[in-house]
Give the backbone structure.
Amino acid sequence: MRRLPAIAVASAALLLAGCGGGGGGFSFSGGSSTGSTARGSVVTLPPPVVASLSASDLTILLIANTTGQQLKQLAGTPVCGIDVRYLTYRTIGGQGEATTATAAVMVPTGTNPSCNGTRPIVLYAHGTATARAYNIANWVNVNQPAAAEGSLVAAFFAAQGFIVVAPNYAGYDTSPLPYHPYLNGNQQGKDMADALTAARTALPTVGVATGGSLLVAGYSQGGYVALAALRELQSVGTSVTAVAPMSAPSAISLLIDYSFSGWPALGATVFTPFITTSWQNEFGNVYTATTDIYSTQYANGIATLLPSLSPDTLFSSGAPPQLALFPANGVPGPVNPSLSIFYGSGNLVTQA
């Protein structure tokens, strides 16, 4: 569940600064309700265009400084422009409850043959995000929490001729689900499949052919979600050409066992409440009360803490602590001296 490399964040700043992004709100108009309530159905057709960039626009942005040139070297010179559409679709939550979620649909544009006709689709799953406002369809806004990851996906895939379908997941952006089913393989696989179904319904209404090959990819949490999506798509008979589950936290129970045996990793104070809230909604028996796991100062409100704020704002608010998973004099203590950073005052988890 590692963060994106530093080049990703720096490159995003370069890309976004020249894209007319800023602190403005995210709005659109047009389209009409489909009326369907089925899983995988589109709420509004056609999905509106929220950003449009030419290949030359993207190239100019990439060569503007050293960081962008490095990203261009990795991703290649943009071949296509990109129309970004904002898709709202129907899916389910961790208890099977009906809800909606949103996704970015990036459509290649331009006269190059690679940008026209039946294009391959990349179904992309994003990494762990603490900000509820995470919206890959708004990556052109430098202040958007999804700016870094969205710009990378745009440069590597959409600008090279791939249609990108990148769900924000249930519980993010405008989804009314009050929690995120974090690493819930059943729900997250269905969420991804529903976004793909909705995109394949919507794209022909705007003149885009969708019969090409399908790549399922994701990073960190998204690596796990990509695997879950593969399983779901295979179970319903959808052909998947290839899958790239990068840096996936696959052995989740083992990861948690290691953390609570004194081997926590960076991010443990975020992953722990994400997991307990998700699994409490899925299974209902992770705890009887949040004080079974969490220190008193955090127990009240921990079940609704995530997703909410971006990491910097979240940690500066003091809930949760950035590193102190266990108490300073916890028993047992650190397994290795290098792990002592996870023991401190104001700890998140009780060892009672």
